[in-house]
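Sequence of Pseudaminic acid synthase (Phenylobacterium conjunctum).
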Amino acid sequence: MTKDAVKIGDREIGPGRPPYVVAEMSGNHNGDIGRAIALIDAAKASGADAVKLQTYTADTITLDVDGPGFRVEGGLWDGRRLYDLYVEAHTPWAWHEALFRHARDIGIQIFSSPFDFTAVDLLESLDAPAYKIASFELVDIPLIRRCAATGKPLVMSTGLATEEEIGDAVAAAKDAGASGLILLHCTSAYPAPMSSMNLVTLPHLAAKFDVLAGLSDHTMGTAASVAAVALGACFIEKHFCLSRAEGGVDSAFSLEPDELARLVADCRAAAEALGEIRYGPTPAEISSRDHRRSLYIAEDVAAGEVLTAQNVRSVRPGFGMAPKHLDAVLGKRASRAAPKGTPLAWDLIAD
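Predicted 3D structure, token representation.
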């Protein structure tokens, strides 16, 4: 395992490479496999590198009870019973083979977040290229070990987690044999306010745990993801839907296809703009050098005439002497006649 690059399928992820953008379908298929396939098509058309599922059933992720803690309090799903929410949001296991096949047929990577061992078994049977650990499962060390033991790359979201909990999860993943590891900074609020994002954590996360870092972005819009790329994120995960107006469990904080396409383009542009530490003109600036300021004869000057602030000025373009020489030139005499508009050069100055 190396922190310099992680490979999912044939795509390397890491510094110096375009950010890897994952379109999270979640439950935005609204229980319709045709919509799920349309979402995969939309992710491909947007330019995303991968589409991601969530592999669970209501019975593998919670209990069918209504006791304390089994209802959501506050936020987007306020009052919903966990079991009912997951019945609505889950992606039926019977769909997985068709969804994986369709994604591969159109040329986009597909993988999933498993929520128990049986989900890992299903995804292994489909030769999933990687595994994602959701924020709420980061404390499930046995699940992390099971995913890592497949030898596939592991992506883990860190929403809610303390440094100690992240450290435990990273140690478990490395010890169990994950072939690569990416940690995603995450704010587990739906939607997440910008003020809660604390994106400056990203480079610290990468350095502290010696891994690649990215962002699981639950904010509205694309700004947080683009800012994360500027801070070194190599992996961006964002929920998406076909239309927020059509509803769905996650649609309120999901991007529509045109927004997802803009996210992909803007994140890649941000990564390209980072470039390298460099001073001096770039190839794109060479022609602009001619328009810098330089010293020019501003009035017709006769041979032997004294050069003054009236007949020598710093102006554009840049074919004369550098303006830093102005004080050294003033008070000298012209070595020959020079009309207005002549770029000043040392041979125009008498010894």
